[in-house]
């Protein structure tokens, strides 16, 4: 088999971390066979990413939670629209498709070009090749239906001014839409540069937030619906005793519990 070579910027190369994490069949929380298939077709030394097992666990927790939230949204709004920002090589559309959703995957042009090698065309599935901060892409989304925006492993790579511009533009274009994203605390954002995988790719972290209600102050009408901690995961009992104890300990300290979590807004 001729494998596909990877040529991405440091920030784009971080998409390989969740791809690798979701492709581990021995993980008790989540496994994506699409990710495994892509891993087997890519010419890349994944060992150089040095992805710790704790990162594999967390990425899989995040994927499972976001999938569940997307399915819940589509259960309420069966013909809704989902925008997946910074989609990387993720297969969420194929995991949660209800047969009616109109889906948009957005990422930088080299990433979208790479996606096209692994995923088939589909009538309700659309690709947007753009930087998320170049907000002209918003006008290409035909959304006269309820909208869910998913930003998985994305917002922390932006600066706060760009996150705010994005949120306000989404609210303007799709009033009342939902935004589902994982975020770092300010402390976690500052210390994330020491993560072995980020050190290998050279990617940088820009944004962290301590109080998620701060976003509600950006403009009237924004409402925080949920703040979910990884320590709340009901499937933690599937992990080894050591990891279960580590999560229990982390849940006892607010600064640790809130270092990385998932927030859900209505815009």
Describe what this molecule looks like in 3D.
It is globular, with a radius of gyration of 18 Å. It is α/β, with parallel strands linked by helices and 267 residues long. The model has no long low-confidence stretch (mean pLDDT 89). It has one domain: Vaccinia Virus protein VP39 (Rossmann fold). The strands form two sheets. A seven-stranded mixed β-sheet has the order 5-4-3-6-7-9-8. A two-stranded parallel sheet has the order 1-2. It is 36% helix and 17% strand. The chain is built from eleven helices and nine strands.
Describe the structure concisely:
This protein is an alpha/beta fold and 267 residues long. It has helices at residues 10-13, 16-22, 33-41, 53-76, 92-96, 109-115, 160-173, 186-191, 196-201, 241-251, 254-257, and strands at 4-5, 42-43, 81-85, 102-107, 125-129, 147-151, 178-184, 223-229, 260-266.
Largest sheet: 7 strands, mixed
Low-confidence stretches: none
SSE ordering: EHHHEHEHEHEEHEHHEHHE
The number of distinct β-strands equals 9
Reading off the top of the CATH hierarchy, the class is best stated as: Alpha Beta
What's the rounded overall pLDDT mean?
89
Q: Helicity level, as a percent range? A: 25-40%
The CATH topology turns out to be: Rossmann fold
Adjacency order of strands in the biggest sheet: 5-4-3-6-7-9-8
- Judged by helices, strands and strand pairing, the structural class is alpha/beta
Q: Beta-sheet strand percentage? A: 15-25%
Assign an overall shape. globular
The figure for the number of domains is 1
What would you give as the CATH superfamily?
A: Vaccinia Virus protein VP39
The termini sit apart by: 46 Å
């Amino acid at each position: 088999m001729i494998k596909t070579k990877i040529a991405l910027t440091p920030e784009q190369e971080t998409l390989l971390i969740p791809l690798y994490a979701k492709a581990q069949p021995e993980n008790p929380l989540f496994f994506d066979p699409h990710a495994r298939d892509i891993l087997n077709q890519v010419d890349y030394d994944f060992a150089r990413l040095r992805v710790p097992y704790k990162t594999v666990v967390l990425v899989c927790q995040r994927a499972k939670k976001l999938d569940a939230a997307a399915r819940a949204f589509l259960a309420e709004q069966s013909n809704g629209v989902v925008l997946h920002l910074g989609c990387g090589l993720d297969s969420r559309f194929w995991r949660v498709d209800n047969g009616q959703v109109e889906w948009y995957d957005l990422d930088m042009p080299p990433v979208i070009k790479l996606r096209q090698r692994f995923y088939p065309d589909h009538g309700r599935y659309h690709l947007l090749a753009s930087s998320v901060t170049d907000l002209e892409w918003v006008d290409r989304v035909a959304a006269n239906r309820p909208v869910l925006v998913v930003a998985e492993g994305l917002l922390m790579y932006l600066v706060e001014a760009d996150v705010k511009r994005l949120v306000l533009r989404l609210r303007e274009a799709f009033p009342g839409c939902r935004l589902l994203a994982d975020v770092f605390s300010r402390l976690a954002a500052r210390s994330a540069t020491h993560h072995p995988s980020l050190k290998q790719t050279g990617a940088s972290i820009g944004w962290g937030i301590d109080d998620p209600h701060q976003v509600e102050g950006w403009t009237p009408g924004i409402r925080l619906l949920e703040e979910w901690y990884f320590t709340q995961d009901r499937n933690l009992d599937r992990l080894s005793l050591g990891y279960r104890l580590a999560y229990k300990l982390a849940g006892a300290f607010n600064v640790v519990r809130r270092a990385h979590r998932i927030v859900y807004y209505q815009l």
